Amino acid sequence: MSNQDDVLITPGMQRYIDRNNEYLAKRSRYIRDVVKKWKFDTIAVHGLYSVEEAIEDYQGSIIEPMFVSTSQAYRDSDEMAAALAYKIPTWCYSRIANPSTYYYEWALALLEGYGFNGETSCCSTSSGMSAIMTAIQPFLVHIRHHVNEPRNIVATAQCYGGTFQQFSVRLMQERDIECRWVEDPTNLDEWARNIDQNTRFLYGELPSNPSQGFFDIKAVADLAHNHNLPLIVDSTVATPALLRPICHGADIVVQSASKSITSSGFGICGAVIARKGLVTNVPNEGLKNDFALYIKYLPNRDYGPNLHPVQAILTLNDLRTLRSKMDMLSRSTMTVAQYLSHHPRVESVQYLGLPDHPLHGLASKYLWLVDAEHDEQYKKPINRYGHLMSFCVKGGAEKARTFFDGLMRIWRATDLGRIKSVATIPAISTHQQQGEAGRKLAHIPPNLVRLCVGGEHPDDVIADLDQALHLAK
Ligand SMILES: *Cc1c(COP(=O)(O)O)cnc(C)c1O
After folding, report:
1. Considering the domain 322-471 in this protein, what is its CATH number?
2. CB 313 within 8 Å of CB 320
């Protein structure tokens, strides 16, 4: 990653560059020979923070350091010049980089790249929305240099409410960048029909929040690549413990790490994880070679959507147990979904784990608990579908609200991914702004309740649901 191509390298700078190249080579060997051979849980626990590094640099602290500091000092002008020209690894100023966010980024890059036969990198962001914004903006630049250059993107209509707003209002209404919604993403022709020479990327969310949309990642990635376009996937609901889209051909993954990745609910954060050498029709070598580092060191330096170092460490602490947590939460959700699907006051249940869900077969091709075959308990690959589900209460919007108001232990909040069970009515909350037509496009009826099952015993979650459903007779 180079800041400027025409920097004059003095002999003093060169000494720093040589020393740091040695460090980078050592780090690459450590990743290749040690970290990449670990199982998922070990990577989640340690990431790139090693005993050796802790003792040499951080007084042996067993937890990654929380560097609540704005900036880094340099030994002399040569080191400063080399650093600011990005000729050596540096964190310089916390808007650009920081040691705490560095460990967060490596943990997520390695986990999303687990099982991938290639390299991945990550750029941390202040939120999931800023992850989406920073992942898409570099593809929307003018490449033919005329003022009214038409540009479009193709995206799944079933997506997070904030994403719908970002694409339909910020891009389409305010900046004239057309968003072409794919209503049935399992239909490859619908994707293909929307692509033309002005398309910049394909974007899909899966499983979608809240309506459990899904599509064939590999088929859509192949389609994108045939048109020289990248596929960007919002994989927030699955987390890398259940799905790693880059392994199936996606170029970029965006994560709202505020959700299941930080299940404690200790704050907002996001990440963009990309494979090196992605496919794009934007003529920019830096962007193609290492997308995440490119956005980190250039556009995001200039826009400033950076993650706070305290948040980075809070998230790392939650992340260490991601696999076992997603397993437990998925199992409880399955129990709750099965219970609700037989409940007389429930019209329908949407959960990809239920065998009668129309996308169950397709989702089962992709959603696997990572390393289940190495788990004493399972010893074989096992499907897990996450802890987000939704269901429709019989009797329409009013009954849904009666039920909702009757919940006693399940929290009424526009949140998900928590270790505590949380429910919301999307039509009056997360998907309120997009109006009736937008909700219809995204399959959000007014009596739909989104439920994210937490770590409580499922019997207790079911008891609360049951008493509240009785009130909605
Ligand atoms: C919450 C969410 C986002 C936005 O993330 P924030 O961290 O809240 O900005 C994006 N996509 C999905 C699927 C989400 O659930």
Report:
1. 3.90.1150.10
2. no
